[in-house]
Amino acid sequence: MTDSRFQSDEWKIIETRFEPERGRDSESIFALGNGMMGQRANFEERYSGDTLQGTYVAGIYYPDKTVVGWWKNGYPEYFAKVPNAPSWTGIDVKIDGELLDLAKCKVKVFRRVLDMKEGLLTRSFTAVMSSGRVAEVTARRFLSMSEPERAAISYAVTIRGGSGTVEVAPWLNADVYNEDANYDEKFWEKESAEYDGLRAAVVAQTRKTAFVVATAMENAFTVNGKSVKSNIALSAGDKTAHCSLTYQYSDGDTVEVKKYVAVLSSTNHPVEGMARKAMASAGEAAKKGFDAMLDSHVRAWAAKWEMGDIVIRGDIAAQQGIRFNIFQLNQTYTGEDPRLNIGPKGFTGEKYGGSTYWDTEAFVLPFYLSTADTHVARNLLLYRYKHLEKAIENAAKLGFKNGAALYPMVTMNGEECHNEWEITFEEIHRNGAIAYAIYNYIRHTGDQGYLAEYGLEVLIAISRFWAQRCNFSEEKNQYVILGVTGPNEYENNVSNNWYTNILARWTLKYTVDSLAWLRKTSTVKFNSVISRTRLDTECELSLWNEIINNIYLPVHHDLGIFLQQDGYMDKLQQTVKDLDPAERPLNQHWSWDRILRSVFIKQADVLQGIYFFEDDYEEETIRRNFDFYESRCVHESSLSPSIHSVLAARLHDIERAYTLYLRTARLDLDDYNREVKDGLHITSMAGTWLSIVEGFGGMRIRNDRVYLDPVIPAAWSSYSFIIRFRNNPLRVEVNGKAVTVVNLSGESIPLAFCDEQLTLGPGEEKKIAK
Ligand code: BGC
Q: How far is CA 289 from CA 144, 153, 200, in A?
């Protein structure tokens, strides 16, 4: 599977060739981010070859007009897009009047290294210009993890082959556009530029949404290591700002610029005076200096790795793959701001609009629950809490009443942005994932208080939605949910999707149970929830209980499986083995009509439900369902194989679990789907983490205890991971002979190892033979 363009290394991604035809791919792979902003690995010097310029600022969006075939009532007016923000990476280099441009020079040496341990990107190359002059360049950049509004670049060029004039000119540009814009509209307006002394800034405002971004730079030049202060000019146009050093070079001279950048957004600062503030911030960065900034950045990364690393021994490609995934997840979301979330492509491309999907709750939350402080996952939950009012409005637009909430399929600010009816109106299972995340958060963290403060309001609103979305079928004498799309988007408008129905039932039950718990625990808090939600504890609860006890869940008795939806067995029964490999992926070879009628499943659907509620089913039931659905699943969503992998490991089918794990482990690094140019699959990266920790590690949280049931793939000699339980870190190391658990915290951790219960005291280590 590995066509690796990158050298094997445990901590680094190393590219050793200049391949212009894969330039966009590398721009995605080497992208940097720090939760607050992100940057594709665009070259600093001008590049006239193919490139996707990408500079992103968290939390801002543009409401792009939607494109639909036929307008339907209830569709949202816009699709939120993350705008390509004012660009700050540019540094022009002109040698004797000729612009350095790798598309026009002869590139003799090229090397790009992403050091994931340090969050540092280094690029070096040797280019021969048409004049015969040779430019040797080393560029280093990082987006600070410790100072999230700042970034720094160090760019050094050594010129060989004679003497002459070199101009090194860092610039900022607010005249940017998006490739992914439905009407080719520009997303920015009111661009301006200014400079003051050594500093310069550009400011731009998004059209319609009026987010303002101020981007500033201060530059420090050296020649052969000595600071240069003369022959530096600053200028500002309407939308761009330039700084430039002109120098008479001799053969072998090295000119270096350190570019200190600050990016401020009106989501965090008053608009008035933002340019000045950004310039002051860039100035402070310059005062601190590149090395000192880098030092604190590296320390911030070290803290993340200390708690979130997975170490795999005996398989360097796997080690590199999982670290890449962990690195990207940490670059995308740091959890300090409850207004931010994790788009499927993070800060690495424009696709998916940078918006929030159910991916966050269903796939990504467990990663942050286990690898970060509790407040990080709590902020992901608060994000949805803050959108509750909009989710209620969204449901009201569709005809639901009485505070029922339907969270959007895709959103930036709580409003629905998706507008394919079969997803917008029908893929309602997303509501259940948001409820499930509350449960998942509480079982991990023990933060029961979240229920009274925020959680129950969300649960009640979602339960109200389910209660209204169900209807009683006289025919079946049961409650049914009609006209839905399950996680399997290869079929729409189905009735009684098992996954949706089971989630609806579970949400209602969890809400009823949580209310009962709160009533017992604190009358004051209970009454406060009731008054905030105006819940009718008689009528509403009795309807919810009726649905819980009498919702229809399709099963196939002879096969002993849950049925994906009504009528699934009427389809021509085939398995993936019957497919011609030349016709895969189906979505690129078959008509949509053929896909919809086929038995083939895009991604885990019934199995997604079994994954969530695994403890409710016996091993044999899980096995039957797994065998049936795995053989029909084409895994054409990158979110899919990891869930199947976790279940295969649960069934102790290690080989299958490993094969499925491999489908996600290096998905982007090795570009299995030939689409990495558009950006990385950030949310499915969390799935890879799940397949190791929950899959091979068998980690579960049950009844206030960490359960472990580890297995190890044959290709690995050992692996280890750290998880947090109630914020207490626990290290688990597995090899072929034993499992070693170390309590890294100051509190006892209740454990269960293959169902044998034990308590590990503070700092205690235990080795258990396998
Ligand atoms: C998947 C969805 C997912 C979306 C964003 C789609 O291909 O089917 O489940 O939410 O991608 O990752």
A: 13, 11, 18
